[in-house]
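Can't paste images in this forum, so I'm doing it all in text. The chain is below; anyone willing to post the predicted C-alpha cells underneath?
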Amino acid sequence: MGIIRKLASQTAIYGISSIFGRFLNYLLVPLYTYYFSAAEYGVVSEFYAYAGFFSVLLLFGFETGYFRFRDKAHSGKDVAYSTALIFVVLVNVGFFLTILLINSKLSSALNYANHPEYVLCFTLILTLDAIASIPFARLRAEDRAFRFAGIKVTEIIITVLLSLFFIIYCPKVYAENPQSWVVSVYNPAIGIGYIFIANLIASVFKFVLLAPQLKGLAWGFDRELFGRMVRYSLPMVVIGFAGIINEMLDRALLKYLLPYDALTNMKMLGIYSACYKLSILMSLFIQAFRYAAEPFFFAYSGNSDARIVYAKVLKFFVIFCVFIFLLVTLFIDFFKYFLGDEFRAGLEVVPILLLANLFLGIYVNLSIWYKLTDRTLMGAFVSLSGAALTIVLNIWWIPLLGYVGSAWATLACYASMAMVSYLLGRRYYPVAYDVKRVLGYIALGVGLYFARVQLPVGAGWQQPWLLSIELMAIYLLMTLLFERRQLVVMVKR
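Text version of the structure:
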C-alpha cells in the first residue's frame, strides 16, 4: 500500500497544478458564457475540437515512446530525449510553415474568411504546445513534478489575466474613452479572437520557461533508436487519434449534423461545449492520474507484486471518480451558476458525460496490458473500434436526439472500450481486478444520483442541498465500511 500512497502523492502534485491551473482556467467559462453568445462560444469550441486532433498528429506518439526508450542510466545525456525532441521540432516547424502558406484558402474553407488570424494564431499555439510536450515528458520521467506543476500553473495564470484584460478591462476603457492608450492593443472587431491571443501569449511564456530543457537538442539524433521509437510510437498515434475522435468529434460534427439553421447549430454547439466543461473535475483528476500513472506503471512493472498493486490502483481510482460524479451531480444547482443562463439548457448531459469520463479513466488503467507487453498495435485496434462506434452513433443519434445523442455516444464508446480492454488484458497481461467491487461502486453512485432526482424535495420535507449532503454521506460511509482495512494500512505506511 506504500507504493499506492506514493502514486497518490505524485497524482496529488500533478493534480494540484492541474486542478489549480484548470480551476483558474475554468473560471474563464463563466467569463466566456456571460460575455459572449452561445453561437460565438461555439466558434471557440470548434477550434479547440480541431486542436485535439492536431495535438495528437503533431506529437506522433513520441511522448509515450520517450518513456519506453529513455536512458535511465545516463539522464545527463539522454539520446532518446534528444531524438524525440529533434523529430517533433522538425515536424511542427514544417506544419506551421505549411499552414502559413495555405492560410487564406484554409480559412475560407472553414467559413472564417474574414478572420484568417484565427487559424494562424491557433496554428502557432499548436506548434508551441506540441514541441513543449517532450520537455514536459522528461520532467515527468525524472519525477520533477513541482517544476512541471509550476510551469503549467504559470501558463494558466497568464491566460486568465490576459483574458480578463482583453475581454473585460479593454472594452470598458475603450467604451469610456476611444482615444485612450488601449487602442494600441485592443480592437473591438477581433472579439472572440482575444481568447486565442491570450492563449498564444501564454504558450510563448511557457515555451520560454522550458528553454533549459531544450539544451537536449545538442545530444544528437540516433537513427537506429529513432526507428525503434517510430515502430513503438506510431500505433500510439492511432490510439491517440482515436481517443480524440471519441473526445472531440461530437463538437466537430454538431455544427453539420444538427437539424437546424447554421446559427442555431452553432448555438447548440456552444451550449453543449459549455455544459461539457462541468465534467471538468473528473477530467482534471484523470489527467493528473495519467501524468503520474504512466511513468509509474512502466517503472513498477518489474516488481513481483506489480499486478496486485495495479488492481488496487484501479479500485481506489474508481472510488474517487464516483465521489467526483456525485459531487457534481448532487450539487448541480450550485455548479450551474458557472454557466451563463443561456447555456443551462444543456445541463441534462452533465451526468452522462461524467460517467463517460469515469469509464475513460478505467480504460486508462486497463490499457497497461498493451503498453507493458509492447502490443501497442492491438491497443490501437481497441481505440479504433471505439472511434468507429463514436462516429456511427454520432451520425445516427445527433439528428434524432441533438447534442444529448452526442453525450450518450461518448458514454457508449468509453464503456465499450473499457470492457474490450479488460477482456484482452485478461489474456495478454492478467491482473486480478476486483470487478465486482468496482462495478458495485459505480452502481452505488448512479443509484444515489437517481435517488436525488426522484426523491421529493422542497415541499416541506427537506431542502435539496440537505438531501444531497445526506446522499454523499451515505456513499462515503459505505466506502469507509468496505475499504477501512486497506485505508488504515495505507495511512500507517
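The first helix runs from residue 2 to 26. The chain has a mean pLDDT of 82.
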